[in-house]
């Protein structure tokens, strides 16, 4: 099993990084292989909205995003960690999520079937909201659902997360839970149940129909991916 921690903080030894690393220690204690991806180490351009990924399957921008995407695809679980800026995930994380793009919305190729944890730290308020926001792409998966093992938002109130032992304990426990969920294939049957019902009855059939009607054109790569998944 493989879990990756994706950290969007600009500070390699900041509060968010410390929280994610503690969660990865918890996962490692369960015998899981862990990898850290520090987004500021990579060259990731802004999405231009060209939608070329829908037909080609890859982004035409010449940067490091595709290699990161492939690492995400191979993971069994993901920890997303972002500091809280203006009551939202920071721009670095938003950009990464945007680059997953409509291809992810149409195919669930990256987060579908995966277990995810959202984590955030804030100087004052908003960290819990942001930690939850980080899991929205998973909860909104159309073709194949993902699973949220949990979220953790911590207000450091001008200090550091290392000054809050309970926060580190919770992070460690959440990492362990993530690993255990992957191993046991926990179903979270009640998670986002209404949204999943609406998706199954209306949204997913619509997406699949659109992919079929444009399989030789704008949505060629989407259709091919859905075929590989046994959806089309």
UniProtKB/TrEMBL annotation:
Transmembrane segments annotated in the record for this chain: none
All residue ranges annotated as the NADPH-dependent FMN reductase-like domain in the record: 1-138
Tagged with keyword Flavoprotein: yes
Gene3D superfamilies: 3.40.50.360
Highest taxon in the source lineage: Bacteria
SUPFAM superfamilies, per database record: Flavoproteins
Keyword set includes Magnesium: no
Protein name in UniProt: Flavin reductase
InterPro entries registered for this protein in UniProt: Flavoprotein-like_sf (IPR029039), FMN_Rdtase-like_dom (IPR005025), ISF_SsuE-like (IPR051796)
Keywords: Flavoprotein, FMN
Source organism per UniProt: Candidatus Moduliflexus flocculans
GO molecular function, one term: oxidoreductase activity
């Amino acid at each position: 099993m493989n879990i990756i921690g994706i950290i969007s903080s600009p500070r390699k030894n900041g509060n968010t990084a410390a929280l994610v690393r503690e969660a990865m220690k918890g996962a490692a204690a369960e015998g899981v292989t862990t990898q850290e991806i520090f987004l500021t180490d990579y060259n990731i351009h802004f999405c231009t909205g060209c939608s070329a990924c829908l037909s080609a399957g890859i982004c035409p921008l010449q940067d490091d995003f595709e290699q990161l995407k492939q690492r995400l695809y191979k993971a069994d679980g993901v920890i997303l960690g972002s500091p809280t800026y203006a009551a939202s995930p920071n721009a670095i994380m938003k950009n990464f999520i945007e680059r997953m793009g409509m291809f992810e919305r149409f195919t669930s190729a990256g987060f579908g079937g995966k277990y995810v944890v959202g984590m955030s730290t804030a100087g004052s308020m908003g960290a819990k909201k942001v930690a939850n926001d980080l899991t929205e792409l998973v909860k909104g998966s159309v073709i194949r659902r993902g699973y949220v093992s949990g979220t953790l938002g911590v207000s450091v109130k001008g200090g550091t997360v290392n000054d809050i032992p309970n926060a580190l304990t919770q992070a460690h426990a959440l990492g362990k839970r993530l690993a255990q969920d992957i191993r046991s294939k926990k179903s979270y049957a009640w998670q986002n149940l209404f949204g999943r019902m609406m998706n199954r009855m209306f949204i997913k059939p619509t997406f699949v129909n659109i992919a079929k009607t444009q399989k030789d054109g704008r949505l060629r790569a989407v259709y091919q991916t859905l075929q590989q998944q046994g959806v089309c």
